[in-house]
Amino acid sequence: MTAQQKPTTVVVGQQPLTVDEVVAVARYDATVVIADAAVERMNAARAAVDALAASARPVYGVSTGFGALASVTIDPASREALQLALVRSHAAGTGTPVEREVVRALLLLRLQTFTTGHTGVRPLVAQRYVDLLNLGLTPVVHEYGSLGCSGDLAPLAHCALAAIGEGVVQRADGTVVPAADAWAEHGQQPIALAAKEGLALINGTDGMLGMLSLALHDLHRLTTTADIAAAMSVEALLGTDRVFAADLQRVRPHPGQAASAANLIALLDGSAIESSHRGAECTVVQDAYSLRCAPQVAGAVRDTIAHAERVADVELASAVDNPVVLDDGRVESNGNFHGAPVAYVLDFLAIAVADLASISERRTDRLLDPARSHGLPAFLGSAPGLDSGLMIAQYSQAAIVSELKRLAVPASVDSIPSSAMQEDHVSMGWSAARKLRRAVDGLQRVLAIEITAAARGLELRAPLAPAPGTAAVLAAVREQVPGVGPDRWLAPELEKVVQLVADGTVVTAAQDVTGPLS
């Protein structure tokens, strides 16, 4: 989904949000509105909470303390102060601010939970989150502070603080100002929280789910990009496309593998380079694994993404809070705030990303090695020896892949008990999400370097012409960076190709010729 394809308005509380809607609001600033039916649900839930708040019955988050202090009863006169104290004390994040799109995704997903009618939050408070999004006011949320259980507590507390008029926000122009000043600029005053609302504002897995949604969106583009890069490398290295045939894939019918292999067949269709070595004179019996097994690896990544999407769909249709207001008006404590389901798939995706980048780097290394590249010059340089060509680009690629392997170490297997052992097992899902974001960026850069190298390889096979699909990608790259020639400052060129990968230009160029790729 590009900025041109995004929904311009997202209705919250009408039906579960989709990944594309999350991205539209978080990344492309789509307008947010609350469905009328959601307002009715919120009012009904609020009435149930108000009734409990007026009673003598101890209810967690309404008339008691929090976490290990849940046994402390709060007198009715102090219950609004309890909510404010909770938000202030839990806004304890530290470290660098996280990205704007992550905070916006977090705000949207917390709003989605409000609109289910299971939290007891008043429509007035929910509208504050709508206003934060639509006015472009982004609470400053810090890198550290969430254990991924009892919700993304500190990140959500910083958002809650901004919503009520405390703390700081970043304006749309990037300047950071006190939240009270930002609200005043838009003619709005601070608001006070009622019973349970402070807890409802901070008790969700919205940060990790928001980052999962953004990663899933990006990984769809990057898996297709990986197939394009592999096709270009197979072609430049005089590999065979016979191993990608559909009947071979049906022998081991993983859906992701079949989709990846079909992409490779479409991308290599009509290649004069491929046709040049299909005859009996070709002495290569089998290609290296990094070529021959490209759809097996990329396909496994696709199937991992599909599993993660199923988890995300369930989460996007859920109300994560504790306690929750049930349809019959009961308010019950629960453990639905635990981030394990999301944390596991975040870690699983980081493993898949690392492996997809690893096989890409191996193909690049093969393109640069004259002993294995079937006649290409050393390091794809213009005058090897005088020119180092893309030698150090592969070093950068290898450094990223090494980092990705470290980022693939699961966060969700770790747990540090908190809150005086009341919260004695946590998911670390926020940490899993943060490292996945870094991994996705790394994969993007690794694929861009492979495309840079493969583009040179295809040019050096002249006068043989590449396939129309890969030729279109080569042309798109050459619009931004020159081809083989004397050594020059390489970093800016690599960044331009990274941008072509990031903005979807590479995928669009191929699909304009091949038709839709999976």
Explain the overall architecture:
The protein is mainly alpha-helical. It folds into two domains: 9-204, Orthogonal Bundle (Fumarase C, Chain B, domain 1), CATH 1.10.275.10; 211-514, Fumarase C, Chain A, domain 2 (Up-down Bundle), CATH 1.20.200. Helices cover 55% and strands 5% of the residues. It has helices at residues 19-28, 36-53, 79-90, 100-114, 123-134, 153-164, 179-185, 197-202, 206-236, 246-250, 255-268, 272-275, 289-292, 294-316, 340-368, 391-407, 429-459, 468-478, 491-502, 505-514; strands at 9-12, 31-34, 94-97, 138-139, 142-144, 168-170, 176-178, 324-325, 331-332. A three-stranded antiparallel beta sheet has the order 4-6-7. A two-stranded parallel ribbon has the order 1-2.
Brief description of this entry?
55% of the residues lie in helices and 5% in strands.
Number of domains: 2
Gyration radius, rounded: 26 Å
Based on the coordinates given, report the CATH architecture of the largest domain: Up-down Bundle
Largest sheet: 3 strands, antiparallel
CATH class of the largest domain: Mainly Alpha
Task: Indicate the topology.
Layout: E1 9-12, H1 19-28, E2 31-34, H2 36-53, H3 79-90, E3 94-97, H4 100-114, H5 123-134, E4 138-139, E5 142-144, H6 153-164, E6 168-170, E7 176-178, H7 179-185, H8 197-202, H9 206-236, H10 246-250, H11 255-268, H12 272-275, H13 289-292, H14 294-316, E8 324-325, E9 331-332, H15 340-368, H16 391-407, H17 429-459, H18 468-478, H19 491-502, H20 505-514
Parallel strand pairs: 1-2
Antiparallel strand pairs: 3-5, 4-6, 6-7, 8-9
